């Protein structure tokens, strides 16, 4: 049984780190992630650098990565509008990702538009991207809870997912943006959405803000989901609670999946290299437990 | 649906911290844990202080706790032999816990006896404790993997569990001592043991060394298990990989269980007080994600 991992550390992870990592180190990180066997990597974002200074070097990073991208590896970036799409095209990207929220207030805070106003903007980007022969992925945020509204009706997520798929998005990643989900809720929400859209069109994007990330992955696996987003080292944090944890860690996810008999194509030892590398660049201890355990074990082995 | 939590932070957590916490702070911690609604607390250990200097103050701690123990709260301590039992009795304890391993090499390293040689020692302790009217709990270590032997046949765990139950132990806690288990393995092993011993006699004791702790709890819940051990703040570490994570965090466990509709009797806000307290005593950031998220949120609220 195969599971696809979409590595979002260079984008979702680094955009929530307070330190700004130099472009060269970002390119080095993506190189190590490819060496570890990750075949889908979201490498940066074309959101206005005024909002996300951490990824202001998107062009430099992507122009450094594309020539060294291994065959079969899909590099993508977040694109908010047609201007962003043009920048992505100039970098030679063959895949982009669109994003919006399932809750009105989060969508407005994040995109400065209502959900209804966002649809035509994204539809235009999707149309042009598809005309350029690009793959287009979609993110829906706040599926499992909104920092402003609390609970989010599953029908909101259903409606936004449907709209994205109708635009030609090949896969919608359902996000627990603030990391509040528990396995029961994951079962309930995915059961509804899988029925409408099939497992092939959906991915799980869990944050580990309250430690439930991997338990939520298992619940989604049980609903048939086979694609998950994660960040190397558990990079990043929760933008609504600075100091709290971010995406689930790629190392922890891979460890668990392999233990459960799933194939990911990822080499866990090489993944540890990538985690150790970006941890050193950031100069702070990352939250990945497998990274900690593997580095601790290496230290022990060196002393024996 | 009710789930029982056995708080093992003051024992399993603190015995794996490098810092030695003063007895007064340990008593303060147990007080806060009781205030948060925890009804089963393993407060210390009567293992030789030469091996575990962190808990050398067992008498002082327990004599400080017992007079303030709330009605209905069960305080226990680890007891390796009849000498330990006598010390426990003098402290007024009404419950003790015995321990051994499912793997021969870990049992020998930890207890300095073979598994077969350990049985009569523990049987004597259990017999005397029961005669004193005490409750006796049992731990089986390395059920999901041994640091020396790797995989451990489920039949080893079955045999040791059976022996403990025959001694009069009321519940056996099955330990993932080195934190290697994944949900698939938890399903497989608990399915076998539940069949032989029933869910009422078994508990899950997971370490979060590789981030799979809560996912393993969900797997055990699905096998019918309703009692879990955890440590406030995710205290402690893995003795075989210093720097790696320890027990699953009580805060994270409670957050997830409540989200899944289980009752624990624990107040998560008060639990945060207990986590913040011991974190400050230790002077290091603990690994509990819910503790981090709650403290980050409080900081934000204070600034608004």
Q: What is the strand and helix layout of this fold?
A:
Two copies of one chain form a homodimer.
Chain A: E1 4-7, H1 9-13, H2 23-35, E2 40-45, H3 58-65, E3 74-78, H4 82-90, E4 95-101, H5 104-111, H6 115-131, E5 135-141, H7 154-166, E6 171-176, H8 183-197, E7 202-206, H9 213-222, E8 227-230, E9 237-238, E10 241-245, H10 250-259, H11 268-282, H12 289-302
Parallel strand pairs in A: 1-2, 1-8, 2-3, 3-4, 4-5, 5-6, 6-7, 7-8
Antiparallel strand pairs in A: 9-10
Helix pairs in contact in A: 2-3, 2-11, 7-8, 8-9, 10-11, 11-12
InterPro entries (chains A, B): Aldolase_TIM (IPR013785), HMGL (IPR043594), PYR_CT (IPR000891)
Keywords (chains A, B): Lyase, Metal-binding
Organism (chains A, B): Brevibacillus gelatini
Structural notes for this entry:
Chains A, B: GO terms for molecular function: hydroxymethylglutaryl-CoA lyase activity; metal ion binding. Chains A, B: InterPro entries: Aldolase_TIM, HMGL, PYR_CT. Chains A, B: One of its GO terms (biological process) is L-leucine catabolic process. Chains A, B: Residues 3-272 form the Pyruvate carboxyltransferase domain. The structure is a homodimer of 304-residue chains. Chain A has 304 residues and is an alpha/beta fold. Chain A has a single domain, classed as TIM Barrel, CATH 3.20.20.70. Helices cover 45% and strands 17% of the residues of chain A. Chain A contains 12 helices and 10 strands. In chain A, the strands form 2 sheets. The first copy, chain A, has an 8-stranded parallel β-barrel with strand order 1-2-3-4-5-6-7-8, surrounded by 8 helices. In chain A, helix 2 (23-35) packs antiparallel against helix 11 (268-282). The longest helix of chain A has 17 residues, at 115-131. Chain A is globular, with a radius of gyration of 18 Å. The model of chain A has no long low-confidence stretch (mean pLDDT 96). The interface between A and B is large, with 43 and 43 residues.
């Amino acid at each position: 049984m195969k599971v696809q991992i979409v590595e979002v550390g260079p984008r979702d992870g680094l955009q929530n780190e307070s330190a700004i990592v130099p472009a060269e180190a970002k390119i080095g990180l993506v190189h190590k992630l490819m060496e570890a066997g990750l075949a889908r990597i979201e490498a940066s974002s074309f959101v206005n650098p005024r909002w996300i200074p951490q990824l202001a070097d998107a062009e430099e990073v992507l122009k450094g990565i594309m020539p060294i991208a291994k065959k079969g590896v899909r590099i993508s970036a977040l694109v908010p509008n047609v201007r962003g799409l043009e920048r992505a095209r100039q970098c030679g990207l063959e895949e982009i990702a669109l994003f919006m929220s399932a809750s009105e207030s989060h969508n407005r805070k994040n995109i400065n538009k209502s959900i209804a106003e966002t649809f035509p903007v994204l539809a235009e980007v999707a149309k042009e991207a598809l005309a350029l022969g690009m793959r287009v992925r979609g993110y829906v945020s706040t599926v499992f809870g909104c920092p402003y509204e609390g609970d989010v009706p599953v029908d909101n997520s259903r409606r936004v997912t449907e709209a994205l798929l109708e635009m030609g998005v090949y896969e919608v990643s359902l996000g627990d943006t603030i990391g509040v989900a528990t396995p029961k809720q994951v079962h309930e929400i995915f059961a509804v959405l899988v029925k409408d859209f099939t497992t092939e069109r959906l991915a799980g994007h869990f944050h580990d803000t309250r430690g439930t990330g991997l338990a939520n992955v298992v619940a989604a696996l049980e609903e048939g989901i086979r694609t998950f987003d994660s960040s190397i080292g558990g990079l990043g944090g929760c933008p609504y609670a600075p100091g709290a944890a971010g995406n689930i860690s790629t190392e922890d996810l891979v460890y668990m999946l392999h233990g459960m008999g799933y194939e990911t194509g990822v080499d866990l030892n090489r993944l540890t290299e990538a985690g150790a590398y970006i941890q050193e660049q950031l100069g702070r201890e990352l939250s990945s437990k497998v990274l900690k355990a593997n580095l601790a074990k290496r230290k022990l082995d060196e002393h024996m």
